[in-house]
Amino acid sequence: MIALPPPYADIHAIVSILCILPTFCLYGAIMRLVFWHTQQDYHTPFYKLFVVGTCIAAIITTSTYFTGHILGAPMFLPLVEVLPHSGPFPTFFLCLLYYGIYAGELINCALAFNRFSIVILKHNYRDWWNRHLKQFVAVVLIFPFVFLWIFLISTNRIYIFDDNNPSMGYHLSNFDYPIWASKQKSMIAVYAFTGISSIIMNTTTLTFLIKKQKTSKRISYANDDASPKNVRFFLYIMLTFVAEYSNDNLPLRHMHKPIFVHCTSVCIRICYTWATVVSICYQPGPPKRCIRPLLE
User: Fold this and answer.
1) Residue 109: inside a domain, yes or no?
2) What is the 3-state secondary structure (H, E, C) of 145-202?
3) Which of 12, 104, 106, 239 would disulfide-bridge 140, Cβ 3.0–4.6 Å?
């Protein structure tokens, strides 16, 4: 996390929570639609994967808010000073943060494959996913644990960012780990696999949709996730992919501009929220049409 000088850190923390709270409300609405709504349109492989994604997104949001805002914003400093700065407490939040990162990349790739599979499986889509959905979910939820052992052999600490300026807040990181156990290597491997495969699958799906749009007068916006022409579901995947790319690359290119980095992260949160809204709307149109399924 790049430290912001006060009072920008406090403002960013407040703006972020204002974006996070409505997003969490949307997550709850989505879970209600999938698990407790009587309409069968929402009991499909795409929506079940999407619910897994919202749970992972909640983990990422909680851990990043702790590491980036609670530790970094001056208004939280009295709380941070009484928290344990070493031992199981920082280890737990590091594991939570990186579990969410790895699982988030995998679930986004799985959702991209879900849309891509309609193109290659066609009428076999529903049966294939009903047979293999549990395996996909298991891989997404279990595989990230493979990389978390790095933090069990490291010294994990919450440390002050600048001893001469305590108002700059605290950071959380791991130290004293073997060179061969660097978390950067595992992150590069996961990002390379999920990023390249998602680009290929999203490009193929987009090409298919463009061809269908030219040959068909009507593009599907229905809730049926087996429809190969469902633009709305694909739009969600693309918004998520763009947000992930921006979140992972823009901060690295502008490390010397902390204000830019943090403004970008707020825009990314808004992008995630809009992607969530898109995914649960019946179809593009008036706002009351979009929120109708949430109120039923």
Assistant:
1) yes
2) HHHHHHHHCCEEEEEECCCCCHHHCEEEEEECCCHHHCHHHHHHHHHHHHHHHHHHHH
3) 106
User: How far is it, in rounded angstroms, from Cα 221 to Cα 223?
Assistant: 7
The answer to whether residues 195 and 212 touch, using CB atoms and an 8 Å cutoff, is no
Structure tokens at 264: 């970008």
SS3 content of the chain, % helix, strand, coil (to 5): 75, 5, 20
Contact 280, 26 (CB under 8 A): yes
Host domain of residue 233: 8-295
Instruction: Identify whether the C-beta of residue 174 lies closer than 8 Å to the C-beta of residue 94.
Output: yes
CATH number, domain of 17, equals 1.20.1070.10
* 94-142 confidence digits (pLDDT tens): 999 999 999 998 998 998 898 888 888 877 888 899 899 999 999 999 9
Torsion sign over Cα 203, 227, 42, 290: positive
* Any domain includes 2: no
pTM of the model: 0.77
Name which of 242, 217, 219 is nearest 231 in CA terms: 219
Provide the terminal-to-terminal Cα distance of the chain, rounded to the nearest Å: 41
In a domain, 1, yes or no: no
